[in-house]
Amino acid sequence: MQHLGKLNPLTSISIPNIGKIEPKGLNVVIGPNSAGKTQFLKDIHYRMLGKPRDLVVCEEISLTRKGTLPEIIAALEEAEHIRVVPGSNSNHNISCRVFEFGGSSDRWQADSNLAQLYYTRMGTSTNGRKGGKDEFLSMFGRSFIASLFLGGRLNSLNEVPSFDYEKTTPEKEIQALYLNEDAQHALTAETERTFGRSIWVDPTRGGVLCLRVGDGPALPPDADRTQPSRMTKFRTIENEGDGFKSYVAICISLLLGQRPVILIDEPELCLHPPQAHSLGKFIGRYGTSDAGTTFVATHSSHVLRGIIEETEYLDVIRLSRAGTNFSGQRIESELLRASIRKPSTKSEAILDGLFAEAVTVVEGEGDRLVYGTVWEKVSAEFKHDVHFVSVGGMGGAADPCELYARLRIPICVIVDLDIIRSPDIFKSIVSALAPGPVAEDLTKDCRKLVEEVKALGPVYDEAAVRSGLTSILSAKLDWTDETQLNQTRRTLGDLSAGLSQTSRLKKGLEEFHSYGVYSNLTAFLSKCRGAGVFLVPVGELEDWAEMLTSGGPSKKKKAEWANHIANAIRDSDPREDDIWEFIRQMARRQRNEIERLAGY
Predict the structure, then answer these.
(1) At 145, phi and psi to the nearest 5?
(2) How big, in percent rounded to 5, are the helix, strand and coil portions of the chain?
(3) Under 8 Å between Cβ of 447 and 502
(4) Containing H/E element for 329?
(5) Backbone angles phi, psi at 341, to 5 degrees
(6) Are 195 and 179 in contact (CB under 8 A)?
(7) What is the dihedral of CA 306, 307, 312, 316, to 10 degrees?
């Protein structure tokens, strides 16, 4: 394949918003559903096979002649992709010996004069996005590309005819695997590690080669694998599940490396997350050949994580779409590697956000559950999807926000109103989302508001505190009365919280309605929404939708309360106010950002 790699006609690909890239090594294409990942691969597939197709995602695919026609024919004949029979007047007969991986299994025949004509015309049938049939690539393109869409993967493992390996070369991948001992060992090691099952090529059926699958990790003894009666006890791979078959097909193509360009569409299909992660690691090990290029389109954070963990040599492209407009963003692989090393961004939920059209970061799992449920109720009003990510406290929000913002993923942060009393944390969040001057301006406003709120004093004045303490001290305390002790703890806790100079923020915006700071707070919340930071105007999560919370668990038991309110929201119709309108405001902002970013 080294020689074929030098003759590979795929020279460059132009992607909206990215421009021209030169395909080499391992390229991973990610993005939301319907963002164009599969269509991107099909653009390459059809153009390299010379089939008529107007490009859908790519702006241009450059395919150029590498070498003279005699050089190409000599290389393909040496690889036994074609057979050349000398004819009269140097007009030789050429016949195809290889199938079109992922497409037609038809074979073609032509004479060298016709091949020369097609060679001189190569590339003239395409112009930018418009593309007609290229006769030269329709003949010879199949020698340079393997397209591993799901159907092609599954079909590639069907039993094949046996062959005389001393006189002919393999035409099918199972035939090639039969002659490649290293690839067989690597394949068996991979299926044993991932599935706990062995796999091997069975030649005992006379005119047929097939793949057999063991019931456990150990291969049958060598003597057994030469005995037909013993081999029939094991199932052929055709009788296995699609996930196992798809996994094996990808592994075989990467191990054999017979064609310079490999396209792998959604390798995670039919696989459990741990298996998808293992396949990602395998692709990271074997998909980085300098002699060719591998494109992987995936919607799986597990596959992506596996690839990133295994190799440093990759390009990651994130596709997005607004209407009929596609847009690409090239991602620094070091940025992704750093993100899976940081505790604040290493979780699968964070990586899942890379595959969403928009992301909303919230503080905890209770917030994610409730706000996510509200989104489910109002999402029909919008055309984009939203992935909610909990970060275990706003102190950990800045890193994922920076990750998503650098990838041009529309992002919002929902945070309790009392974030205002933590200007440094607020600054770290807004700095990840907004341009520097905007972030500085909002941070100054935040610091100013903290002082204005503090100037109002605590919620409880001296008389209220004395009254609360007196009610506790005047009662006869029974240290065995758990109910009384719990009530005493609650009273003391409320008094303690109420003595904080910023405790009013917990009660929401309306707590300040009669104070001059109210207008400043209202304006600040509006400016924050413009930057993607949505402060909860009622104070905190537990103060939303009070019409649905009666009879439910205490707000102090947040997990139980969140489950209760989420069920109540799910069972009720969406309203035009309260938490429903709050989430609509968030979604409108994300929708506008999607449209803005798609304008490239």
Answers:
(1) -145, 140
(2) 50, 15, 35
(3) no
(4) strand 325-331
(5) -95, -25
(6) no
(7) -130
> At CA 422, angle to CA 418 and CA 426, rounded to 5?
95
> Which of 491-528 are b and which e, b meaning 16 or more Cβ less than 10 Å from the residue's Cβ?
eeeebeebebbbbbbbbbbebbeeeebeebbeebbebb
Task: Return mean pLDDT, the chain.
Answer: 90
Long-range contact set of residues 465-468: C-beta below 8 Å, sequence gap at least 24 = 465/495, 465/498, 465/499, 468/494, 468/495
Q: Which has the closest alpha carbon to 293: 21, 33, 71?
A: 21
As a whole number, mean pLDDT of residues 99-114 equals: 80
Q: Report CA 182 to chain centroid distance, whole Å.
A: 32
Q: Where are the alpha helices (DSSP H) in 233-332?
A: 242-256, 273-286, 301-310
Using CA atoms, how far residue 186 sits from 181, 189, 285, 302, in Å, is 9, 5, 11, 22
Whether 538 contacts 544, CB under 8 Å: yes
Read off the pLDDT of residues 420-435 as tens digits, 9 standing for 90 and up. Answer: 999 999 999 999 999 9
Rounded distance between C-alpha atoms, residue 258 and residue 177, angstroms: 11
3-state secondary structure of 423: helix
> End-to-end CA distance of the chain, in Å?
39
Residue range 210-240, pLDDT digits in tens: 999 999 999 999 999 999 999 999 999 999 9
Measuring CA to CA, which residue among 179, 373, 165, 364 is closest to residue 258?
179
Distance between CA atoms of 279 and 307, rounded to whole angstroms?
8
Tokens at residue 136, please?
Answer: 């030269």
> Which residues are CB-contacts of 356 (< 8 A; sequence separation ≥ 6)?
32, 385, 386, 387, 409
Please answer whether residues 510 and 525 qualify as being in contact, where contact means their C-beta atoms are separated by less than 8 angstroms. Answer: no
Distance of CA 331 to the CA centre of its chain: 12
Instruction: Put residue 551 in one of left, alpha, beta given phi > 0 → left and psi -120 to 50 → alpha.
Output: left
Q: What are phi and psi of 20, to 5 degrees?
A: -85, 130
**pLDDT tens-place string over residues 392-420:** 888 888 888 988 998 889 999 999 999 99
Domain extents in the chain: 2-144+259-322, 343-457+502-597, 458-500
Here the contacts of 76-79 (C-beta below 8 Å, separation 24 or greater) are: 76/4, 76/140, 76/143, 78/3, 79/1, 79/3, 79/4, 79/143
Q: Which two tokens stand for residue 242?
A: 């699609």
Q: Where are the alpha helices (DSSP H) in 287-346?
A: 301-310, 333-341
Q: Please give the C-alpha separations between residue 261 and each of 28, 62, 141, 150, in angstroms, as whole numbers.
A: 13, 14, 10, 17
* Residue of 275 and 480 predicted with greater confidence: 275
What is the spatial distance between Cα 44 and Cα 9, in angstroms, rounded to a whole number?
Answer: 11
Angstrom distances, CA of residue 85 to CA of 67, 78, 117, 179, 310 = 21, 14, 19, 26, 46
The answer to whether the pTM exceeds 0.90 is no
Which DSSP string corresponds to 16-64? TTTEEE---EEEEEE-STTSSHHHHHHHHHHHHTT-----SS-SEEEE-
